[in-house]
Design a protein that fits this description.
There is one protein chain. The protein has a domain at about 105-290. About 65% of the residues lie in helices and about 5% in strands. It is built from 10 helices and 5 strands; from the N terminus they run H-H-H-H-H-H-H-E-E-H-H-E-E-E-H. It has helices at about 5-20, 35-55, 60-75, 80-95, 105-110, 115-135, 140-165, 190-210, 215-235, 270-290, and strands at about 170, 185, 240-245, 250, 260. The strands form 2 sheets. Strands 4-3-5 form a 3-stranded antiparallel β-sheet, with no helix packed on it. It has a two-stranded antiparallel ribbon with strand order 1-2. Helix 3 (about 60-75) packs parallel to helix 6 and helix 4 (about 80-95) runs parallel beside helix 7 (about 140-165).
Length: about 290
């Protein structure tokens, strides 16, 4: 065997390791659409949404939108696609309640029930990827679903757990000290929690579907990168207000006065979440289709 053949064989061996697939408990193609599947999807999504509303994780609008999105997720792949979404939603909802004893303006919004805008901004792109997977049956859209969830999970875990157990918080741009809970702020502890969240989603995707090692690594790396991008956009574009009492906040309540100190008034935390998720998911899916 000549040298060129040997080098080619070594490359193929290394490449095959990256292409090794997960356990694939569930099918790589969408489920068949039947009336019974639809009824099960509506029932389960309704139960989860009503439970979330009862526990004050979602308000009425958020629960309705979550029910529709949940039904689509179940219709796409049953438990295989539902479990990672439930993992993100339940963990994020439970972690947000860790802030219920914190009364600062920065953390007040996290402790309130999520509305339909927050539900759409955090899960809408993932569900859209599933819809495209159902229509086109391309594996890249399934990876996009997990990638989008990885971004949302990493951002939520870093924010909620970082506020509870994080240390010194600094602005990701300039590394200036920031109050805990302000978008754009990062801590080593919060970033670590975010990495664990993206790692969990990547491992779940590898376990549930026949995703390759390369795809799973992309999901993990993309989720962590999306978390950092979210903080960067939060620091540069998102609105920050200085309240009359001197406290920094991301919003001003009707009975308060404050001045815009940084960013754009229309750029909310929800839009930052949507934008960072879209950018990472779009880049990731595009690159996967080019490979």
């Amino acid at each position: 065997m000549d040298g060129e053949s040997i080098n080619k064989s070594k490359f193929q061996i290394r490449n095959s390791k990256f292409q090794a697939k997960g356990f694939g408990i569930f099918f790589e193609t969408p489920m068949a659409y039947t009336m019974s599947t639809l009824l099960i999807a509506i029932t389960l999504a309704g139960i989860v949404s009503i439970t979330a509303y009862y526990n004050k994780w979602l308000d009425a609008g958020g629960a309705c939108v979550a029910a529709v999105m949940g039904a689509i997720v179940w219709m796409a792949g049953g438990w295989g696609t539902a479990m990672p979404m439930l993992l993100f939603f339940i963990s994020g909802s439970l972690f947000s309640k860790l802030q219920k004893n914190r009364m600062s303006a920065a953390s007040e919004k996290q402790s309130n029930p999520r509305d339909f805008i927050q539900v759409l901004c955090n899960g809408g792109i993932a569900v859209f990827c599933l819809l495209l997977w159902m229509i086109e049956k391309k594996n890249e859209w399934l990876v996009g679903y997990f990638l989008s969830l990885s971004v949302s999970t990493a951002d939520t875990w870093s924010s909620e757990l970082g506020m509870k157990w994080g240390g010194k918080v600094v602005d990701i741009i300039g590394l200036r000290p920031l109050p805990t809970g302000i978008s754009g702020g990062i801590s080593w502890q919060g970033s670590g929690f975010g990495l664990v969240g993206s790692l969990l989603i990547g491992m779940v995707g590898f376990w549930l579907f026949k995703l390759t090692i390369f795809q799973s690594i992309a999901i993990i790396a993309g989720g962590f990168t999306g978390m950092l991008l979210d903080s960067t956009l939060g620091s540069t574009l998102q609105a920050r207000y200085r309240l009359n009492n001197g406290e920094m906040s991301e919003f001003v309540k009707h009975n308060e006065n404050g001045r815009l100190e940084k960013g754009f008034a229309w750029m909310t935390n929800d839009l930052v979440n949507l934008l960072s998720n879209f950018i990472i998911t779009a880049i990731g899916v595009t690159l996967l289709m080019m490979v």
